[in-house]
Inverse folding.
């Protein structure tokens, strides 16, 4: 039998995992609104993130309209444009992607995938969502205060961010900083939960090296966030002091429009260090969960184990660690001591090695696989394309001297949209198509899905690929309009108009996706149990979709890694993680929960 | 048609399309007008190395999709690791990274090492305009202090520094530079971050209030070039423009002669304010600005 089960060599540790007392909701309110169930919190997080993400999407249309057809829209002036880019960037990065990956997918998947009944601190977990919601409300409020939201760019660089030459410097910037501080507080509550749950609440047999890569990605990303966000937090508080109390943390002596201000002695570059000490890990806070999830999507839908699992885990850990020593690659031309360039260029390019290895291993997973071209697989493939493209341009910007002409051009905008905008979003879409049946018991509509996929993939690629070349030409980012510039040919304007049209079409496809999400709730095809025949634990629950407490009376016991696909000699092409050695010879395709109540009596 | 053909074909199309777009793009960098051809070379090298990886990885993916798309009853290969492949890939990738980083750092070393004979000039940014300052006859820029900025002294030149008196000041006009002479550009801002950039020169650096930053280059082509602000500095950011004129030594000297020095501008301001105050009232406040008094000896 041993040859059938290559990964089931070791014994299950005999120590029982003590079960936490589950919180049981007593009323409709505590079940659906002030819920402490991670699955409900996940849905709350996801819906809020998607809702605010739609605002960012609409802002991107307005920006694109201005760039594509300058001087055609009298309702967009320069202040508006700068407010749009700022809110668009900040919402996309923080309030959509970070919240969706960690608060949404983290909450839903961690307990289910490690075999826990819930997060370890459910009450704090609930608070996390409500503080996040408050942060979003404060953010939205800034659209309605006098002067409007801040237009300082999502990097919020002082002195500009708090001076009158920037829109929203009266109230907008204050609300932005307060909202960020709230977000960080809320995130910390959730983040501690994710980390402790992974470390302490894994079920019997779920060793760290048997966890699905999704959990690894989210786990390491959360650790990064817990270490990185405090830098942003102090930066935000210090800037609030500068703005409200007149302190001078980031403010040197300056003259604005001929008027001497009373600040003196502060350092604008200090803020940049704080911001990017957070900001670079932030890139990986978004990327690592995407890495993890896409690994699982590829493996499940290619019906093959992930290639080089251990290398994949170590790559995640190493990338996470290195991401704390590269931050100043965003500051090569900031005026910091130029000698730092040598150090940060070297560390930055070193990160490329584990990152490239991950890409190789994804593609090698497809080698001699049995690839099902389902929607999640399509999105995963599209992720590989956009991520390789965006990763490659990162090697340009990381190589200090190459960054000199390219920094603050459209090349940068194209690069980060490809690598941390489009690529992770494609993973999110793939993940939603993949786990929607688990959450709702219904499948998303395939036809609408195909439409959504092709328009989004090809559309975003056509938007951002040519943008690199405008950057190489020298078109700056954050320009309300180019006006007359001798080195920019008229054709650049035609290209901009074309990109705008593409952006509007892509935007439309997202509305189709939303419609699909809502429609399928009621009208989607009923999903059979474990429709993708996945081996990881979240599909092996007693109830389908999983109910309160996740698993049946007994927690599952794990006997193998999450990637036993195509095991030679086994009756099915996959063996769920909770199937013991002596049951391998039976088929598990029909009743994935067969082994669920065999072991581990509840204490 | 084989299953997976459509998707593999699209992947192939995207890959080939990207390469073709790169080759035929009408949008490409502006013709170089400085000594920083090395930067362009490094970019080209990076394009080659990463381009090969791009085509290889995506080509391989497309091939897998075509070759291994689903067949009922087929099993995928069970081979969780392959140390040899993984080490080879690590090695090759590291090689590629070293191949890009080494020339990159070499050129960066040039970039931060200013030649001894470089002429020093100053570009000053403020919302939303550029001004320039050239050392006068003494060849040295006077020291500055934001606190001394006022109507008569918009550059904040230290009134007590004799070296500042002969500085040539240019506000609201183009900057001229002599051809083929290395220049060290000192960058200073009065208010927020700015960044002075002429794409044809390839070199830029932010200007940060409170400190003086720099970069250097040698103009290698005559002409008039657009200078833009490349660091968000408020609503007027996109309109913060100027021009740089690179010309032969003779033309440059002729232009330089016509420019005003700090001392001259103070005298002009003096005269004007003197005239104004005579008209306004009989009260004399002639020497209050200190403009006419001889400079005191100062240390730097
Ligand atoms: C198809 C969807 C999108 C379109 C059409 C789009 C378009 C734009 C445009 C036109 C700008 C301003 C460029 C400039 O003038 O500097 C911008 C900035 C930005 N976008 Fe997007 N975007 C999209 C999706 C995303 C996503 C998913 C992210 C998430 C990472 C994102 C993050 C940002 C950031 C961080 C900025 C910079 C803001 C700043 O300069 O302060 N965008 N986007
Ligand atoms: Cu970074
Ligand atoms: Cu600017």
């Amino acid at each position: 039998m041993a040859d059938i089960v290559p990964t089931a060599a070791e014994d299950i540790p005999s120590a029982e995992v003590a079960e936490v007392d589950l919180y049981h909701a007593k009323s409709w309110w505590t079940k659906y609104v002030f819920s402490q169930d991670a699955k409900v919190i996940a849905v709350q997080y996801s819906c809020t993130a998607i809702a605010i993400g739609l605002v960012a999407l609409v802002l991107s249309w307005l920006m694109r309209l201005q760039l594509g057809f300058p001087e055609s829209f009298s309702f967009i002036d320069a202040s508006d444009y700068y407010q749009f880019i700022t809110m668009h960037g900040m919402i996309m990065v923080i309030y959509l992607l970070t919240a969706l990956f960690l608060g949404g997918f983290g909450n839903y998947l961690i307990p289910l995938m490690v075999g826990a009944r819930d997060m370890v601190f459910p009450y704090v977990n609930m608070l996390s969502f409500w503080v996040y919601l408050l942060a979003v409300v404060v953010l939205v409020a800034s659209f309605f205060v006098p002067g409007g939201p801040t237009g300082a760019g999502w990097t919020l660089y002082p002195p500009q961010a708090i001076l009158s030459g920037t829109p929203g410097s009266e109230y907008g910037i204050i609300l932005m900083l307060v909202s960020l501080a709230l977000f960080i507080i809320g995130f910390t509550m959730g983040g501690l939960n994710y980390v402790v749950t992974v470390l302490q609440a894994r079920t019997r047999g779920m060793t760290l090296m048997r966890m699905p890569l999704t959990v690894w990605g989210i786990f390491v990303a959360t650790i990064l966030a817990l270490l990185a966000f405090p830098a942003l937090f102090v930066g935000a508080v210090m800037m609030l002091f500068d703005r409200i109390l007149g302190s001078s943390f980031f403010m040197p002596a300056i003259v604005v429009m001929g008027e001497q201000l009373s600040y003196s002695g502060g350092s604008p570059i200090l803020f940049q260090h704080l911001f990017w000490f957070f900001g670079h890990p932030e890139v990986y806070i978004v990327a690592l969960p995407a890495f993890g999830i896409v690994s699982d999507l590829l493996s499940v839908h290619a019906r093959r184990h992930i290639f080089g699992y251990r290398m994949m885990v170590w790559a995640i850990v190493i990338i996470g660690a290195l991401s704390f020593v590269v931050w100043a690659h965003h500051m090569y031309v900031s005026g910091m001591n130029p000698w730092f360039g040598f150090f940060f260029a070297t560390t930055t390019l070193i990160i490329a090695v584990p990152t490239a290895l991950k890409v190789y291993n994804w593609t090698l997973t497809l080698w001699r696989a049995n690839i099902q071209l389902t929607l999640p697989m399509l999105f995963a493939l599209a992720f590989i394309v956009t991520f390789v493209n965006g990763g490659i341009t990162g090697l340009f910007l990381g190589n200090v001297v190459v960054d000199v002409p390219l920094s603050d051009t459209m090349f940068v905008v194209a690069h980060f949209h490809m690598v941390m905008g489009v690529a992770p979003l494609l993973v999110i879409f793939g993940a939603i198509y993949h786990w929607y049946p688990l959450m709702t018991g219904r499948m998303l509509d395939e036809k609408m899905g195909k439409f959504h996929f092709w328009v989004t993939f090809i559309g975003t690629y056509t938007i951002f690929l040519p943008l690199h070349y405008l950057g190489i030409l020298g078109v700056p980012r954050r320009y309300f309009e180019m006006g007359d510039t001798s080195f920019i040919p008229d054709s650049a304007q035609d290209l901009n108009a074309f990109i705008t049209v593409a952006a509007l079409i892509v935007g439309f496809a997202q509305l189709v996706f939303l419609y699909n999400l809502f429609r399928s709730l009621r009208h989607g095809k009923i999903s059979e149990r474990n429709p993708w025949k996945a081996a990881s634990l979240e599909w092996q629950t007693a109830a389908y979709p999983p109910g309160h407490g996740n698993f049946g009376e007994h927690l599952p016991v794990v006997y193998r890694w999450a990637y036993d696909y195509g095991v030679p000699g086994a009756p099915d092409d996959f063996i769920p993680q909770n199937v013991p050695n002596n049951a391998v010879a039976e088929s598990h395709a029909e009743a994935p929960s067969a082994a669920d109540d065999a072991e581990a009596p509840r204490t | 048609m084989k299953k997976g053909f459509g998707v593999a074909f699209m992947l192939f199309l995207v890959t080939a399309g990207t390469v073709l777009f790169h080759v035929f793009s009408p949008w490409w960098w502006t013709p170089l007008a400085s000594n920083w051809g090395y930067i362009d070379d490094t970019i080209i090298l990076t394009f080659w190395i990463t381009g090969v990886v791009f085509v290889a990885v995506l080509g391989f993916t497309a091939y897998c999709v075509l070759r291994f798309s689903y067949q009922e009853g087929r099993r995928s290969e069970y081979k969780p690791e392959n140390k040899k492949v993984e080490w080879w890939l690590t090695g090759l990738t590291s090689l590629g990274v070293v191949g890009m980083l080494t020339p990159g750092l070499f050129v960066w070393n040039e970039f931060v090492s200013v030649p001894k004979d470089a002429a020093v000039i100053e570009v000053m940014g403020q919302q939303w305009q550029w001004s320039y300052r050239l050392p006068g006859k003494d060849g040295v820029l006077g020291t500055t202090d934001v606190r001394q900025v006022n109507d008569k002294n918009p550059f904040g030149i230290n009134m007590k520094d004799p070296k500042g008196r002969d500085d040539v000041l240019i506000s609201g006009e183009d900057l001229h530079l002599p051809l083929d002479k290395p220049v060290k550009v000192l960058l200073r801002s009065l208010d927020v971050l700015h960044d002075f950039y002429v794409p044809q020169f390839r070199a830029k650096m932010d200007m940060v209030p409170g400190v003086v930053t720099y970069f250097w280059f040698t103009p290698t082509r005559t002409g008039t070039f657009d200078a833009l602000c490349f660091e968000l500095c408020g609503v007027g950011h996109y309109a913060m423009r100027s021009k740089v004129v690179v010309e032969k030594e003779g033309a440059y000297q002729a232009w330089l002669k016509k420019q005003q020095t700090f001392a001259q501008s103070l005298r002009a301001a003096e005269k004007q304010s003197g005239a104004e105050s005579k008209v306004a009232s009989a009260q004399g406040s002639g020497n209050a600005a200190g403009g006419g008094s001889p400079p005191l000896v100062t240390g730097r």
User: Anything to note?
Assistant: Chain A touches chain B through 111 residues (CB under 8 Å). The first strand of chain A starts at residue 255 and ends at 256. Residues 1-5, 591-603 of chain A have pLDDT under 50 and may be disordered.
